[in-house]
Amino acid sequence: MRPFQFLLPALLLLFACCDTNKNGPTDTFDRGAMLQNFADNLIRPAYNELLDKILVFDDAVSTFHATPSIENLNAMQTAWQEAYFQWQFANAYNFGPAGEAGLQKGLIEEIGTFPASAAKLEANLGSGIWNVTDFNRDTRGFPAIEYLIFGSGATHEDIVTAFLNNQHHKAYLTALSENLADRVETVVNAWNGAYYTEFTNNKGTDAGSSTSQFYNEFVRSFESAKNFKLGLPLGKRPGQIQAEPQLVEAWYSGKSLECLRLHLTAIENIWYGRSKSGQDGIGFREYLEKVEGGPALIISTETQLAALRTALAAVSDSPALSVQITNVNPQLESLYTEFQKMTRYFKSDLSSLLGIAITFSSGDGD
Q1: Which of 12, 36, 79, 131 is the most buried (most CB within 10 A)?
Q2: DSSP conformation letters of 124-166
Q3: What's domain 27-354's architecture?
Q4: Cα maximum dimension of the chain
Q5: Percent of the chain with pLDDT over 70
Q6: What is the pLDDT of residues 297-356, one digit of tens each?
């Protein structure tokens, strides 16, 4: 019998095996249930609550405009803080209606770019001319608003006086607050409408699938916390030659550490599929349980998460993060090291086992 007579059956068997293993054991996992949990218990509640808090802030802005006073300034600052803290639970969902569209970047760039540019903001205040849709994303969103209502080393009296003496302050703050609400409301409406069905029904793992988009933004959000909320002010990013404490998030309000802690909690919630209120659901952890090698990665990941949490807990709540960086607190170096160790588990290892490609560029080198 000729040897090639065995060739076709052998090739068919090989292709069958390859096709069977293309998605691996993850085919036994119900991605639809995971996506629905993410949408119902994490994403939509995060955006809905964010919009609610932004609207409370917008009301506080109106009250302050009508009656500029220290009391109303305090109320406005508190409302901004509550909205910004909630933003930490929504900034990982930078895809779909919150993703890029034409000249518009993702929502995180449009309303969360920090640090705000004091020079540009002051120029806008001086001229009375600004644009909330141009490329100067460091002149709008939460950080720009923070600059206006907290100031740089300004007293409450100074801030109130600035608003009383320059009508541009009032008009600019109103424009920024309205733009913030409009952008988030657009995302909320999409998630509460047709996009919800689109997201939960797209159950594949290819680059355009909901799982791929969500996973990539999950990793990118983690790296944002590591690289920009901590690494950048510590002077760890490429091209930096020293620490730059003024580059922390929420520098003017002094809420940098609180934001970092909440951001890490939000990341952990995605891993566990857990709602902000603590309700457990289906997350990437459950996904791994159905994958060969997954249980071992779960143990490694959660061991490192615990180490990261311990390192973060060791950093004192006061003084402000920028001051601790200036004073060269060694605990911050330890914290950054634990963040670095965490990267491989969320990024390379999880991506490999789930068969989901990393589609964004972090410039991280790891």
Answers
A1: 79
A2: HHHHT---SSSS-GGGSHHHHHHHHHH-SS--HHHHHHHHHH-
A3: Up-down Bundle (1.20)
A4: 99
A5: 91
A6: 999 999 999 999 999 999 999 999 999 999 999 999 999 999 999 999 999 999 999 999
Are 315 and 306 spatial neighbours (Cβ–Cβ below 8 Å)? no
- Collapsing DSSP states into helix, strand and coil, what is residue 178? helix
pLDDT per residue as tens digits for the range 146-155: 999 999 778 9
Could you count the other beta carbons within 10 Å of the beta carbon of residue 349? 17
Strand partners, 104: 101
pTM over 0.85: yes
Cα separation, 279 vs 256, in Å, equals 27
* Residue ranges covered by each domain of the chain: 27-354
Cβ–Cβ contacts within 10 Å for residue 214, how many? 24
What was the pLDDT predicted at 178? 98
Between the alpha carbon of residue 91 and those of residues 5, 108, 119, 251, 324, the distances in Å are: 59, 6, 26, 18, 25
Q: How far apart are CA 319 and CA 140, in angstroms?
A: 27
Residue type, 252: Y
